[in-house]
Amino acid sequence: MLFDTHVHLNADQFNEDREETIARAREAGVQYMTVVGFDRKTIPLAIQIAEDYDHMYAAVGWHPVDAIDMTEEDLQWIEELSSHPKVVAIGEMGLDYHWDKSPADVQKEVFRKQIRLAKKVKMPIIIHNREATDDIVEILKEENAAEVGGIMHCYSGPVETAKECVDMNFMISLGGPVTFKNAKLPKEVAKAIDLEHLLVETDCPFLAPHPNRGKRNEPAYVKLVAEQIAELKGLTYEEVTQRTTENAFKFFRINS
């Protein structure tokens, strides 16, 4: 039994076969998923999918690439949705310096506002980080995000930073890159971070694990991530699936 903690089944790439994709996941042992909504288009569909399927949950937040588009009304909307019984986290939020649609100062302000909102509603957060590790960690510390904790989604940074995040009450979630032959950092993190602090995810439709790299990712492939972590840590596949699923239940405060 697996818990894919970060999926975008609300993305257009699944419009033609969403139901079949979920069925394939269940057949692969992926019983639980969190669908992440990150803007005005994807948030309602994330909640709709969570309502329509058992063992599926939603996270609601605002993606840093689109930070410039977020209004105070959007923030209020996210706060209202946080009380929905199937919403288990705020996010994804964070910083993305790869794309230049939203200036860094705007991204930082939107990031801080969402952390403060999460603390207000007492919900954990999901962090998106691209080429912004130092600023992410600094803001998490300044805003005392440890109060609610969170997930470092699809973590690809160094071991030292991962340990720093664990100390701030954050889980480290590994995705497809841990299976890439040339991805040294995720493999080092998988070895170094105790299993009690790890989660697994796909971030589908993006970042498909080897041997499906370059294809559309889907939740069924999270099994490949768990298998790789088991191999790297010298554990059985069953040990990794059981503990990461338990970790997800605990993190999202879901009664198994």
Which terms summarize this structure?
alpha/beta; 9 helices; 256 residues; 18% strand
* Largest sheet strand order: 1-2-3-4-5-6-7-8
**Beta fraction:** 15-25%
Low-confidence stretches: none
Average predicted local confidence, pLDDT: 97
Number of helices: 9
Structural class given helices, strands, pairing?
alpha/beta
Strand tally: 8
In sequence order, what are the helices and strands, one letter per element?
EHEHEHEHEHEHEHEHH
Largest sheet: 8 strands, parallel
The separation of the N and C termini measures 12 Å
- Rg, rounded, reads 17 Å
Helix content: 40-55%
Shape: globular
SSE layout and pairing:
Layout: E1 2-7, H1 18-27, E2 30-37, H2 42-52, E3 56-60, H3 72-81, E4 87-96, H4 104-121, E5 125-130, H5 133-142, E6 150-152, H6 159-167, E7 170-174, H7 184-192, E8 198-200, H8 222-233, H9 237-252
Parallel strand pairs: 1-2, 2-3, 3-4, 4-5, 5-6, 6-7, 7-8
Helix pairs in contact: 8-9
Describe the structure.
Keywords: Hydrolase, Metal-binding. InterPro entries: DNase_TatD-rel_CS (IPR018228), Metal_Hydrolase (IPR032466), TatD-like (IPR001130), TatD/YcfH-like (IPR015991). Its EC number is 3.1.-.-. One of its GO terms (molecular function) is hydrolase activity. This is TatD family hydrolase. This protein is of the alpha/beta class and 256 residues long. It has 9 helices and 8 strands. The chain has helices spanning 18-27, 42-52, 72-81, 104-121, 133-142, 159-167, 184-192, 222-233, 237-252; strands spanning 2-7, 30-37, 56-60, 87-96, 125-130, 150-152, 170-174, 198-200. An 8-stranded parallel beta sheet has the order 1-2-3-4-5-6-7-8. Helix 2 (42-52) links the parallel strand 2 (30-37) and strand 3 (56-60). It starts with a strand and ends with a helix. The model has no long low-confidence stretch (mean pLDDT 97).
